[in-house]
Amino acid sequence: MSVVGKKPKYKIDGSSFLGATCELADLLMEARYPKMFESDSKLYDAKHMCFTEEGQEIFEEVLADVENTLDVWGIIHEGAE
Fold first, then answer.
1. What is the full per-residue pLDDT of the chain (81 aa) written as tens digits?
2. Distance (Å, rounded) from C-alpha 72 to C-alpha 44?
3. Which residues, other chains included, contact 3 with Cβ-Cβ below 8 Å and sequence gap of 6+?
4. Spatial contact of 12 and 77, defined as CB atoms under 8 Å apart
5. Domain boundaries, the chain
6. Kind and range of the H or E element at 49?
7. Which of 8, 11, 17, 46 maximizes the CB count within 10 A of its CB?
8. CA dist., res. 20 & res. 17, Å (int)
9. Is the pTM of this model over 0.85?
């Protein structure tokens, strides 16, 4: 479905947009990589409680997909044009 040329329906404040998109991306990461948080995971560093470099790259790709999907449906960050 394409909504090219239509004005956005919903603008969300920055902190809410960031929180929601990151939460959705995190849930998708957990669904895609169910063993991500195990000690031998190559995607998550349990000692430092953060993604590894590889995990961060995947997270950023998933986050971009989430943001693009919301944009298609007219849900954007309030500062976006």
1. 455 556 668 999 999 999 999 999 999 999 999 888 787 788 888 888 889 999 999 999 999 999 999 999 999 988 876
2. 30
3. 72, 73, 74
4. yes
5. 10-77
6. none
7. 17
8. 5
9. no
DSSP assigned state of 47: T
CA distance 81 to 67: 14
Distance set, CA 15 to CA 7, 20, 41, 59 (Å): 22, 9, 30, 18
Residue 26 corresponds to which tokens in the numbers above?
């995190």
CB burial of 15-52 (b: ≥16 within 10 Å; e: otherwise) equals eebeeebeebbbebbeeebeebeeeebebbeeeeeebe
Nearest by Cα to 41 from 25, 58, 24, 27: 58
What's the CA gap between 55 and 8, in Å, rounded? 32
Contact by Cβ (8 Å): 77, 66: no
